[in-house]
Amino acid sequence: MARPNLDLIAALRRTARKIEQGSPYQWGHMGSCNCGNLAQEITKLTKAEIHAHALANGRGDWNEQLNDYCPTSGLPMDLLINEMIDAGLDSDDLKHLERLSDRRILNRLPENKRHLRHNYRDDVVLYISEWATMLEEQLLSTIKLPQFTWETEAVYV
After folding, report:
1. For residues 12 and 16, what is the distance between their CA atoms, to the nearest angstrom?
2. What is the pLDDT of residues 10-46, one digit of tens each?
């Protein structure tokens, strides 16, 4: 599962907002699908550049790209995936994102919203938004605040 961090959470929230507000979304296009939209936010590449990287590798969709991923190949798509992994994701996160299939995220949704369709804008926005919220909660749970007693607090007043 993704490593919760502020940059990744912000990238997920920006991705959801952009898709919701009408950013190009086409599930069959490597640069403007679920993963492609997130890749745009993380790598700052355009949808056309991401799509070209994928075609240069000669592999199919994101799932196939991830199955064949080699961190040392130097191929453009593998470098792009490296950047996404460096941002805190792992290959399973990306496979789940493309199919909206991570049970940890789906189980957080209302029961009537757990059967998402991977080619529907509203379902993608819901999934990515809930994922960002889940990571945010995980990150916040690691923050430990100092405990103050009334006597200690009085010193700071």
Report:
1. 6
2. 999 999 999 999 999 998 899 999 999 999 999 999 9
